[in-house]
Design goal:
Elements (H helix, E strand, L loop, with lengths): L8 E5 L11 E7 L2 E8 L7 H5 L8 H4 L8 H15 L5 H28 L5 H21 L8 E2 L2 E2 L7 H24 L2 H7 L7 H7 L3 H5 L7 H4 L20 H25 L20 E9 L2 E9 L7 E5 L2 H12 L8 H8 L3 H4 L2
Antiparallel strand pairs: 1-2, 2-3, 4-5, 6-7, 7-8
Length: about 375
């Protein structure tokens, strides 16, 4: 809190798109254009997922977990499926592991395209979201062909994936990867190398590197603070140990550093997708499970984690041997990034920088009130 004798004015920022990350609002106390206090309100879009899952059959939980993060549902499917598989002792086919990795990286790419548009929109650079939201649709077309859904997929589930890749799907994915790679120079000129963005983002929203790990910061914000932490490397799952990619870091720990981390990781994900398609073996994609409407998962618990576009995302799944989960706990970056961290970082900031700082952290509001 900034010491002052003047009375602060209350200002409500959000909910709106793309200046606010999802349906949430930040309550600000300001003196002039300087913030002296900030409180996050996450809204009431989707909520109560964990309790809802305790009242659903195991298979009925998949439409629920997708909505914990609407822009990036696939890591939720992955976590829940792997948690159930670990408890039940299910080994999935090798091809299914490669397909899951493909889906997760396509999900990362579309999430980063949405983020690029939001980050640019937060400073009034509205050409970028027009471009990136349009380019993101090419990936959503692939998801629609593969899963039947553009946003919510329910494709990764216990035993593997719901169905194999369609005929010609590999070539269509590679065509989209070539297109996205060709767009990177344009993205660079418009946003990442834009003098206005560099000036606005440099030195703004700095996370103290010595506090980042203590606060629980993950993903691009943590790597921008100098920590080479990535769950795909630190605790490999699916086939990430069989593909090559670089985990970038920077030391500035500001909005611009976080943007450049994502820019580099976007390029790395394109490379991973190509490697997965080149190395993917033939074979089955699903290990059969009992009747899902009568399935009793053996008693036990499991803690699994993935690296989402926003950082480490983990699930703790508990079964008591019944047809429904005893407990499912989702542990993601949003609570730390959008509440404890954001409320601390905004004190002393200019109101013009609020949306830019928030977007740089990457949050999904439903994940907070889960």
């Amino acid at each position: 809190m900034i010491a002052t004798s003047k009375k602060a004015t209350k200002l409500f920022l959000g909910p709106q798109h793309p200046g606010i990350t999802g349906n949430m609002m930040v309550e600000l106390d300001v003196l002039g254009d300087t913030i002296v206090r900030a409180r996050t309100h996450v809204g009431y879009l989707h909520r109560g997922f964990e309790k809802l899952m305790e009242q659903r059959l195991w298979i009925q939980c998949f439409p629920i977990v997708c909505r914990i993060c609407v822009p990036e549902p696939d890591p939720n499917e992955e976590n829940f499926a792997r948690g159930v598989e670990e408890i039940a002792g299910i080994e999935i086919p090798e091809r299914a592991k490669w397909i899951r990795t493909l889906v997760l990286e396509l999900s990362r790419l579309q999430a980063y395209l949405l983020w690029m548009g939001g980050q640019a929109g937060s400073i009034g650079l509205y050409t970028m979201p027009q471009w990136t939201v349009g380019d993101r649709d090419y990936i959503l077309d692939l998801f629609e062909e593969l899963t039947g859904g553009r946003v919510y997929h329910m494709y990764i589930w216990p035993g593997g994936v719901r169905r194999d890749l369609p005929d010609g799907f590999r070539d269509r994915v590679l065509k989209v990867m070539d297109y996205l790679e060709s767009r990177l120079p344009e993205y660079d000129r418009l946003l990442f190398e834009n003098a206005l963005f560099i000036k606005r983002a440099s030195g703004v929203g700095v996370i103290d590197p010595e506090k980042a790990m203590e606060w629980g910061v993950v993903g691009p914000p943590l790597r921008a603070a100098g920590y080479r932490h990535d769950t795909r490397i630190d605790d490999p799952y699916e086939v990430y140990s069989q593909v090559e990619f670089v985990v970038p870091t920077r030391t500035e720990s500001d909005v611009y550093a976080r943007a450049m981390i994502r820019r580099f990781e976007f390029e790395q994900s394109i490379s991973i997708v190509r490697q997965v398609l080149d190395k993917m073996p033939e074979g089955p994609v699903y290990t059969g499970i009992p009747n899902p409407f009568q399935w009793r998962v053996p008693p036990g618990d499991a803690y699994v984690r993935t690296e989402s576009a926003r950082g480490e995302f983990a699930y703790y799944v508990v079964s008591d041997g019944s047809t429904k989960p005893r407990r499912v706990h989702a542990r993601g970056p949003a609570y730390v990034h959008a509440v404890t961290l954001l409320e601390h970082m905004l004190v002393g900031a200019n109101i013009a920088d609020v949306s830019m700082i928030m977007n740089s952290l990457g949050t999904c509001p439903p994940e907070i009130e889960r």
